[in-house]
Here is the input.
Amino acid sequence: MRSAIGGRRAWVAASTHPGEEEAVAEAHRQAASANPDLLTIVVPRHPDRAAEAAAVFGARGLPVGRRSADGRPTAGTAVFVGDTLGELGLWYRLGELAFVGGSLAPRGGHNPIEPARLGCPVLLGPHLAHVEELAAPLLAAGGARTVADASALAEAVAGLLADPAGLAAMSHRALAVAEAGG
Here is the structure.
């Protein structure tokens, strides 16, 4: 998979729910202005939503691929939907940062320690009721950041991708928290 991505910048939007893909599309659009070959990997919380998620990006003119149909992203793929089970760790390893869904949509959030264990800095929306105890140490250490809405997600993704040193520091802090037991 790494060879399919090549030298492209990539980030992950994991465990997304309805309404969050629109925010991810805006984040991709904004970050791609500085990184024209940017790859956004989207992993819907429920794989049976893959067609729905892909349609959100396709409707915005973004070339979309799906793991279940295409296997790997091509050079022309802007958004790749990871719609197979058991591969979330793969996507986190390939991404430079991760947005963990269920947190922009009022779902209560999903586990932010999973990407942190793989050294992936984390972005979270404001809805963290189900994961507050996991998110708090990451946020306190600077291994994770919260974003209030779609616009803030777009700014955070673009800003972090434009700041390799800041992104690396955030990655180290996320991993340190995960290794310390969250």
